[in-house]
Amino acid sequence: MAAIGTRKLKLEIDGTNYTPQVSNVRITSGEADSDFVTFEDAANGGARDYALVITLVQDAAAGTLWREIFDSAGTDVPYTVMPYGNAAPTAGEPHFEGTATITEPDGDLLGGEANKSNTAKMTIEVTFPCTAKPTLVSA
To answer: How many CB atoms lie under 10 A from the CB of residue 53?
Structure first.
């Protein structure tokens, strides 16, 4: 059994590989905020909301994830998270797929603090709400 490591994860959004532009990718889950809870939701422990949370480098060039966010906020897009880095999902190393809504970050969209490093990059964190629970794809 292979555990999920910290260096292999890959991210595709709308068929584009954004792995080189991201440093943190998480699928989060939380209690749904709803004024209406069905009996079925209550019996199952309550409705859940899922989100794709990403830390990415700021790069306004065409074809970057930052530019996709700037140009396409509000658009629903398919995503695939490959936590094992494998190109094809397997039973032992599945992928997670779903649809999320591109959103701009709350707070900073562009810019940040100075840094003496020649390799440091300015980043932002975004939260893309998912339209449903991600699907575990094993083959």
So the answer is: 13
Domains of the chain, by residue range, sit at 10-137
Half-sphere exposure of 111 (CA within 13 A, CB side): 2
Nearest to 54 by CA among 111, 103, 16: 103
Walk along the chain (139 residues) in steps of 10 and give the mean pLDDT of each run: 86 97 96 80 81 97 97 98 95 96 95 93 96 95
| Beta strand extents in 3-122 (DSSP E only) | 10-13, 16-17, 22-31, 48-57, 76-82, 95-101
The b/e string for 100-131 (b: 16+ C-beta within 10 A; e otherwise) is bbbbeeeeeeeeeeeeeeeeeeebbebbbebe
